[in-house]
Model the fold of this input.
Amino acid sequence: MAFFTGWAEALQATRLAIADSVGVNDPINYQRPTGMLDYLLNPSLNPTNIQAEMVRQGANNEFRDVQIRWHQHRCDGDLVTTDASASCTKNNQVRDQLTTVQPDLFVMDKFTLYEDYLRENNEAGLDKQTRLTTKFAESMRVCRESMSSQLLAKAAGLFGANPAAEVGAGLYHSFQAIDSNSGVDIGQFDTMVNHQLENYMTGPLALVGFSGNPRKYFNRLAVGNLNTNAGVNVADIARQFGALFFQDYSSTANLGNANRVLAFYPGLQQFFSYNTKAGEFGKSSPDNLISGVMPDTIHNFNWDFDISFDRQCTENGGINGAWVVRVWLYFDIFNIPEAAFGDTYCGSDGLNDFNGVVGYEMTNA
Done:
């Protein structure tokens, strides 16, 4: 018996060592790249305000619709340069614009915990609360991956024109990023940055995608000196241009081509969500249903959840029963309308069909 006891203790020690020391590469921390979501909810790169408004307005569970106010760009149609051209004639007032939206995207994950499993406290640290917390975190991870993919898919269906590249809405500007020697053309990064400037945009440029040629391009920029025409460091690019790269595992499926990326100009795309259980944290109903909201473990938003007890008296768990847990969220992306930049006031001289998202396709020789 002493032998088996010692073996069990050694196995337990191994389990604890994996969980405590592996850290980021521990399977429990695994997550596919969620670049789209990471960008939208990065407050230093993409200032957010809609989400805060949704939390404030939806705290009493009263509605899902929200009105978002935005301003049309003021062009020079009423500009005069000589006093002889001055006029007292009234012009049409430029009003605030209101867009009514509601989160149309949805994600839910469900898991079951049997009572006999929850009572297995012989593994150090895995008491009932720890087990439940771990499962909640896993559900959040699975849902975040789906959220990022859904958001990128929606962005891919709404991106506007790139006036600086002279391509229309929904079209990708193509340029050669990798030469015949498999080296990278470092000047092509300037193409995207210059387009941003020529589109009158400032702030950090966020590129979401990175499969195929884009991943090869930026990997080689990061390594530096891999070929004679390489040698640029991504960190230096980020410091000089304020641009960052967000890898999203769903980019090939959602953009239709592994060599495509979407470029986002900050502040023009907003994440927002709606909680159906706001104000109900820990509320228990007579039918053993517990519901509420729970903060995401990484980003600044809340998940809805409910926990119901199923006695399962004649199957599966026997008299022990089981807890069925659901984690879900209504969410969406708001993009500034194309009319805000030019269609209404600026005519052919404005940013026609531009909405702050442009597409690129990186080719090789």
Remarks:
- Residues 27 and 125 are 17 Å apart (CA to CA).
